[in-house]
Write a structure and sequence with these properties.
This protein has about 450 residues and is of the alpha+beta class. The protein folds into three domains: about 15-140, Potassium Channel Kv1.1, Chain A; about 160-275, Serine Threonine Protein Phosphatase 5, Tetratricopeptide repeat, CATH 1.25.40; about 295-455, PHR domain (Jelly Rolls, Sandwich). It is about 35% helix and about 25% strand. Helix 5 (about 95-105) packs across helix 6 (about 110-125) and helix 6 runs antiparallel to helix 7. The two termini are about 45 Å apart. Residues about 15-25 have low confidence and may be disordered.
Length: about 450
């Protein structure tokens, strides 16, 4: 059965109107290679993809595949040189279809449902650009409903950065994420990894309820009767990671004691703790989980009695990039008493506008830097170029502010635990993005003294 390549041709920059009346016109290299793949013209290799019951056949060209993948190049130069058919049982046909389409046309129509499978295919055949696209796509589409599914896949693909982003989402939305069906599908090591995290925003009662639900699902997977004894056996090693001493006595009684998961001695130990008669059992952590505090990257110093006028005819711009994936929370803005500020703020990813605030209003309070927080945290990808621009919206009133100097072009920020750090580069902003206004470069001096972010 022939494989299903996406039959819609890839988008290109050519004007379809100019070639619409020319039959079989292939306006550019991308369109011509798509036609080669779709028509199977002069194909010299076929792939039987998927499990036996759902296998599909794809036809392709060894030369094209060799140009796009070192793995294909090695295959067709070695043991597979004389072969005309290759069996690929470990990749879904729909994912293999996108892999071929990308090699031929640089086009990959990804969805959340298929991106992980395409990532696996791209890794298997060493198509590195497609790997990056899949990883970035999954990063941008992470949500509580899919965080656990993508976490398991990211770990199996050794995508460390993607896995960390999944854990960040789980930290922030733990109760919602654990209520989703994909949480019940995780393995025991992943369950323990989540339960031991210090940065989750969640009640311990919710963690206990989630762990019991997971044990119920695990009983079904293992063909075990759902009993308290079997649930307890499956949770051995995970229960000590739940911080029972942080519950109130009432919460413990109505949630844990009532469940039947604890044995009598464990119940006695906990009630002794609640009554103040003993220390907490040593196997339970008594330290509160704490959400991650924002990190601030400060790059400018205050000029010596230097002031600037925020010119309403000019944007103040700054380019920047992170060495790791983070969540962008906001920016530091210089102020000066007694002025009120009314600014416009634009944020770009490359040439794409990703955030706009037409009314950034605040009053100087005496602090040299006002912390402006975005209305929503923006996932910022590693090594992607971003730029921010601010504009004074008070054309009739001169607005004075402080002026920073000695701008750093690169700084490293480490979290309070000392376990993670990120390098931030500061660059000149693209001047051509903003039309009709001048752009003042704040890379080495001027405005925008700080960036606020978190993991």
């Amino acid at each position: 059965m022939p494989g299903s390549i996406n039959l819609d041709p890839p988008n290109c920059d050519c004007s379809s109107a100019s070639i619409a009346q020319v039959e079989d016109a292939h306006c550019c290299l991308k369109q011509r290679f798509w036609w080669m793949l779709h028509s199977q013209t002069l194909s010299d290799i076929s792939f039987i993809v998927g499990s036996d019951s759902e296998a599909k056949t794809f036809h392709a060209h060894k030369n094209v595949l060799s140009a796009g993948s070192s793995v294909f190049r090695s295959m067709f130069s070695g043991n597979w040189a004389a072969e005309s058919s290759v069996r690929v049982p470990d990749i879904e046909p729909s994912a293999f279809s996108i892999l071929l389409r990308f090699i031929y046309t640089d086009d990959a129509p990804l969805t959340v449902e298929i991106a992980s499978q395409v990532l696996y295919a791209a890794k298997k055949y060493a198509v590195f650009i497609l790997e990056m696209q899949c990883s970035e796509f999954l990063q941008k589409n992470l949500c509580p409903n899919n965080a656990f599914t993508i976490l398991v896949q990211a770990k199996s693909f050794s995508e460390k950065s993607l896995a960390e982003s999944c854990l960040d989402i789980i930290d922030e939305t733990a109760e919602v994420a654990m209520s989703c069906e994909d949480f019940l599908e995780i393995d025991f090591p992943t369950l323990c990894e989540v339960l031991k995290r210090d940065t989750m925003e969640v009640k311990e009662t919710a963690l206990f309820d989630a762990a019991v639900r997971w044990a119920t699902a695990e009983c079904s997977r293992k063909g075990l009767e759902v009993t308290r004894e079997n649930q307890r056996s499956l949770l051995e090693g995970a229960l000590p990671l739940i911080r029972f001493p942080l519950m109130t006595q009432k919460e413990f009684t109505t949630t844990v004691a009532k469940s039947g998961i604890f044995n009598n001695q464990e119940l006695v130990d906990m009630y002794y703790y609640f009554s103040g008669c003993s220390e907490a059992p040593f196997k339970y952590n008594t330290t509160s989980r704490s959400s991650k505090e924002p990190l601030i990257a400060s790059r400018l110093s205050i000029g010596n009695c230097s002031f600037s006028i925020l010119d309403p005819e000019s944007y103040h711009g700054l380019g920047f990039s992170f060495s790791k994936n983070v969540k962008l929370l906001g920016f530091g803005l210089y102020t000066h008493v007694p002025f009120d500020y009314n600014l416009k703020l634009l944020l770009y990813e490359g040439k794409k506008l990703i955030y706009e605030d037409e009314s950034v209003q605040f009053k100087a309070t005496g602090d040299e830097i006002h912390r402006y927080y975005l209305k929503t945290a923006i996932p910022s990808m590693a090594n992607i170029y971003y730029s921010i621009y601010i504009l004074n919206k008070e054309p009739l009133l001169p607005t004075y502010t402080l002026h920073g100097t000695d701008g750093k072009t690169e700084i490293t920020v480490t979290d309070p635990s000392g376990q993670r750090s990120v390098r931030i580069k500061f660059l000149s902003p693209p001047f051509s993005i903003i039309e009709g206004k001048n752009v003042k470069n704040c890379c080495h001096s001027g405005q925008l003294p700080a960036i606020i972010f978190k993991w």
